[in-house]
Specification:
This protein has helices at about 35-45, 60-70, 75-85, 100-120, 135-150, 150-165, 170-175, 180-190, 190-200, 205-225, and strands at about 10, 15-20, 20, 95, 125-130. By secondary structure, the chain is mostly helical. It folds into two domains: about 10-70, ATP12-like, CATH 3.30.2180; about 75-225, ATP12 ATPase (ATP12-like fold, Orthogonal Bundle). It has ten helices and five strands, in the order βββαααβαβαααααα. Helices cover about 60% and strands about 5% of the residues. The longest helix is centred in the C-terminal third of the chain and has 24 residues, at about 205-225.
């Protein structure tokens, strides 16, 4: 799509305006952001477009559209989906061999599970191999309390982070500022990096990884901007 606007600004209600007119989401709602910092970042995405608008470079806008169009209406469904990741969290499923990979997972992942226990009372069990392990009900209830406390905006960012990493614990760590998105991404890819060291990198897999890393970075920024300031003033 060719660029059809000249000026980008932020309205008093933290809406993003193109030549003074509000942007609409795919469902035709106004693109109004919950914090000034997120509104400014979304506006900058639009301001940074060239002669052609490239939606693939507007990851914050995409997340905002998702939050507005579906997250609040589907909040319970999203929380339930995320809790499913917690029940089979990546960090809980360890290799059976070789010893080097087992050690890497132990050193990288166990501290994060300890953190989830200390911070939220969510002590998740660990197994070796792919056979499903049933998590303790109290641990899942603790994760559920974390999710229930979040609004649709935060759940949107958390859903992206969880889907990319395969770990609700890592996603919550990003939300809480315990991990940067890049560190969380590295922790989620210990297996893949180990295999690449042994057998060589796959160019297509590396390309996908770069895309996922960029999406996770955007989700992290999205979550950060949500907590960076108060909402718009009351009318």
């Amino acid at each position: 799509m060719k660029r059809f606007y000249k000026e980008v600004s932020v309205g008093g209600d933290f809406s993003v305006l193109l030549d003074g007119k509000p942007i609409k989401t795919p469902s035709k709602a106004r693109l109004v952001l919950p914090t000034e910092s997120l509104a400014a970042a979304v506006a900058e995405e639009w301001r940074g477009q060239g002669a052609t608008i490239r939606p693939a470079t507007m990851l914050l806008t995409k997340l905002a559209n998702t939050a507005i169009d579906r997250a609040n209406a589907l909040r319970e469904d999203i929380a339930s989906d995320l809790l499913g990741f917690g029940k089979s969290d990546l960090l809980c499923y360890r290799a059976v061999e070789p010893a080097e990979l087992i050690e890497r997972q132990q050193e990288a992942w166990s501290p994060m599970l300890d953190w989830a226990d200390q911070a939220f009372g969510a002590r998740l069990k660990v197994t070796h191999g792919v056979r499903h392990i049933e998590q303790d009900g109290e641990a899942i209830a603790a994760l559920n309390r974390v999710l229930k406390a979040l609004d649709g905006w935060a759940l949107t960012g958390l859903q992206t982070a969880t889907t990319i990493t395969g770990s609700l614990v890592l996603a919550i760590a990003i939300l809480e500022g315990r991990l940067t998105p890049s560190k969380a991404f590295a922790l989620s890819r210990i297996d893949e990096e180990f295999q690449a060291e042994k057998w060589g990198a796959d160019p297509e897999a590396e390309k996908r990884a770069r895309l996922h890393a960029a999406e996770l970075e955007a989700a992290g920024r999205f979550l950060q901007f949500l907590s960076a300031g108060e909402g718009p003033p009351s009318p």
